[in-house]
Design goal:
The protein is α+β, with helices and mostly antiparallel strands and 392 residues long. The chain has ten helices and 14 strands.
Length: 392
């Protein structure tokens, strides 16, 4: 098991375990189980030797870190605590107290972990930001619009050391836009949505590549451009950048502050569910009564008669696994460059359209989890009913 966890920690992946440190708790758990099994089999002399070896290793690590200058500013008093714990373990093993000897390894491990949390700040490598309570309010942004926010890397430009004043009221760093119910196409994600990350080259904290952002605003912000196709009708540009969306006739400056400028497309906000004609081969359907949930959208759709189908665009991030039906009739769901879902509506179709997210991995994974839980419960039930035979 230890070998398998070690191999998994070294394999690159696109999931939440993409960084090896996320495997450390599991690795430490396996090491603890191995150590516990080994201690059960140890004799008194072997336990005493293990305690002495631990003391020797702690001393060697302290001397090595001092000699190589790798101890850092928090080596002491942490080193003294570890040294004291190792020495205490050795002294307890020398005493003829069986109960205390059985519990001393657990006590040493718990005290060592507690000492690391006390002496080493758990967020020492994580930047801090001054985010105010005003981020719970949407102002000065419009909650009915879909925004693209262009800002530099937050961990360098917006951390407390760089900007001690409250930040993010306009640019909405990461996923802070969700606090106020605002709709942003970019946001924080350690996994990163494939479509948005690929098309906008966005990083983990939601920052879009500056060169690509400039190209999008200058060449894809106009009529029938990529930004209009996916429903973006609001653009936020941080003060660190000097470019604006083009053509200027289609955009207006809605808000300007020290942090950023906000541009809105002329006219009313674009609806979340739209009938579009990107290729000139689709009819325009009538859409009313749009209701949106966390992972579903419903709308009443009336497609005109004729020989041309209607095309419905939903301004939500696309992932494989979206399904659509209208009056219990399944419809095909595809995407606009893997960015937003698109649904084809046959001519003359009318009814209540439902788009919901239910990927195959969720269906099969849920069935497997339920089956595993049922097997565990049944096994535990029979284990309780089984009589326990005491050793003679």
């Amino acid at each position: 098991m230890l070998f398998v966890v070690f191999i998994l920690a070294m394999i690159p992946t696109a999931g939440v375990f993409r960084w090896s440190f996320r495997w450390l708790p599991l690795l430490h758990l396996v090491l603890a189980l191995c150590a516990a099994e080994a201690l059960v089999l140890f004799s008194q002399k072997q336990r005493l030797f293990a305690a002495f070896l631990m003391l020797l290793l702690v001393i060697m690590v302290i001397i090595g870190s001092l000699f190589l200058r790798t101890g850092g500013e928090r080596l002491f008093p942490l080193a003294w605590i570890f040294l004291g714990l190792a020495l205490g373990w050795l002294l307890v093993e020398l005493l003829p107290l069986n109960l205390l000897c059985e519990w001393i390894p657990v006590a040493v491990v718990f005290a060592a972990l507690l000492a690391t949390y006390i002496c080493i700040p758990p967020n020492s490598g994580v930047p801090k930001y001054n985010l105010s309570q005003s981020l719970l309010e949407p102002q000065p942004l419009d909650p009915h619009r879909l925004y693209l926010s262009v800002y530099p890397p937050p961990e360098n430009f917006y951390r407390i050391e760089a900007k001690p004043a409250p930040v993010g009221q306009i640019v909405r760093l990461g996923s802070t836009s969700m606090w106020a119910g605002l709709r942003f196409v970019n946001g924080y994600s350690p996994i990163r949505p494939a479509g948005a990350a690929r098309e906008f080259a966005s990083a983990i904290h939601g920052e879009v590549d500056p060169d690509l952002a400039q190209w999008l605003l200058q060449h894809q912000a106009g009529e029938n451009g990529l930004l209009e196709r996916i429903g973006i009708d609001g653009i936020i540009v941080a003060r660190e950048f000097d470019f604006t969306p083009q053509p200027a006739a289609e955009w207006e400056l809605a808000t300007e502050a020290d942090e950023a400028r906000v541009f809105h497309r002329h006219g009313q906000a674009m609806p979340m569910v739209r009938s579009v004609n990107f290729s000139g081969k689709n009819s325009i359907a009538e859409i009313t009564d749009v209701v949106a949930g966390r992972n579903w959208v419903r709308a009443s759709v009336v497609a005109p008669d004729g020989d041309r189908p209607a095309l419905i665009a939903v301004s939500r991030p696309f992932f494989p696994g979206y399904r659509a039906l209208i009056d219990r009739r399944n419809l095909a769901v595809f995407s606009e460059r893997n960015l937003i879902p698109l649904i084809g509506i046959p001519p003359g179709t009318h009814g209540r359209l439902t788009l919901y997210y239910r990927p195959d991995w969720l269906i099969y994974g849920s069935a497997l989890a339920i089956t595993s839980a049922a097997i565990w419960i049944i096994s535990a039930f029979f284990a309780i009913l089984r009589p326990i035979h005491s050793p003679r």
